[in-house]
Amino acid sequence: MRRFLVDAQLPPALARWLSAAGHEAEHVADRGLQSASDQAVWDHATSSDAVLVTKDEDFASRLLVEGSGPVIVWVRLGNTRTRDLLGWFEARLDQVEAALERGERLIELA
Fold it and tell me: Helix 82-90 and helix 12-20: axis angle, to 10°?
């Protein structure tokens, strides 16, 4: 079981789906971080040891520059309906879990 924090550009339904898949997951809105700065989201993910699931390239870039912080799952998918996003993510969850097991810090999903 992993802990995930789903960023604002992704729907709360993704956090609920991850929870149903056996992980601990919350959306930034669950923590009052819906409109928070990137720094606040970064800090929360780091302090709660959560994998940050985001579409924001800034988080991926920051991890590469700083070399520390939360593990990032960078979702590189255009705008889509929630149902389609969940199916797309479900097809890649094994890939994410395997990358986490290998200790990868930046997991790019395209």
Answer: 40
